[in-house]
Structures are given as structure tokens and as C-alpha cells.
Write a structure and sequence with these properties.
It contains four helices and six strands. By secondary structure, the protein is α+β, with helices and mostly antiparallel strands. The radius of gyration is 20 Å and the shape is elongated.
């Protein structure tokens, strides 16, 4: 199903055990995989949850917890094309998800981020520029 926008199917066990009240305790590996799939660009959290028999609100809760997100952030190469002093800081961001390029024009300088750029990496670059 590559390229169709659908995520691959989970092949392992999902539910570790079920409590008397009907509540399911899910395997950590399944939760980590589900959070990873839901974090991909264009993924439908509700659709992914439905296909895997999980409540969409529970999946969103797991995503907020952040237990399964990596703590390391990869640094992206940054190229400054031109540099001019400016009194005003006005940033224009153009995202091109198909090519994986983000260009930021700042005071006459253009900063281009290539490759897979996620929101956390872009936030780190913008925070560094603001400082």
C-alpha cells in the first residue's frame, strides 16, 4: 500500500490484557507504533485509530504523553545566502512538503532547510533566529 496514504498494518498483538470493567491494557510496542504512524504528515488520527480498534481520543492522549517520541533532535544543514542588517525582523516561511524544503527569508537573508523537516526542528531554528 505504499504511496496510497494508508499506514502499514500492525502484525503483533495489540491488547496485553482486558480488565473486568472491559478496559484494555495495550502493549507498549503497539502504542509506540501507533503514535509513530499517527505523527506522520497527512495521517488521519481518527482513521488510524478506527482501523486498529482504538478510541481516537485515547490515541490523541498517547500522542500528547510523548513517551514514545525520541529525545534526540537531528540538526539540519542551514545555508545563509545573503546577510544584511535590518531593524525589523520579519520572517516569511514557505513550506514545500513535496520536496522537503523550507525557506525562511529574514532581513534579506534566505535560510533553506532541506530534507524531512518536522515542526520541532523548525521551531528550534526559529527560536535560535529570534535570539
Amino acid at each position: 500500500m505504499q504511496g496510497s496514504g494508508h499506514t502499514p498494518e500492525w502484525n503483533g498483538p495489540k491488547v496485553e490484557r482486558t480488565l473486568r470493567n472491559g478496559k484494555h491494557i495495550y502493549f507498549s510496542a503497539f502504542k509506540a507504533w501507533l503514535v509513530e504512524q499517527a505523527s506522520r504528515p497527512g495521517a488521519s488520527v481518527a482513521g488510524l485509530a478506527l482501523r486498529n480498534g482504538v478510541n481516537a481520543n485515547l490515541l490523541r492522549h498517547w500522542m500528547k504523553l510523548g513517551h514514545w517520541q525520541s529525545d534526540t533532535q537531528a540538526l539540519l544543514p542551514v545555508t545563509v545566502l545573503a546577510q544584511q542588517p535590518c531593524a525589523d525582523v520579519v520572517a516569511t516561511t514557505i513550506a514545500q512538503p513535496s520536496t522537503g524544503t523550507v525557506e525562511i527569508e529574514l532581513c534579506g537573508a534566505v535560510i533553506r532547510l532541506c530534507g524531512q523537516v518536522d515542526a520541532a526542528q523548525l521551531r528550534a531554528v526559529l527560536t535560535a533566529l529570534r535570539a
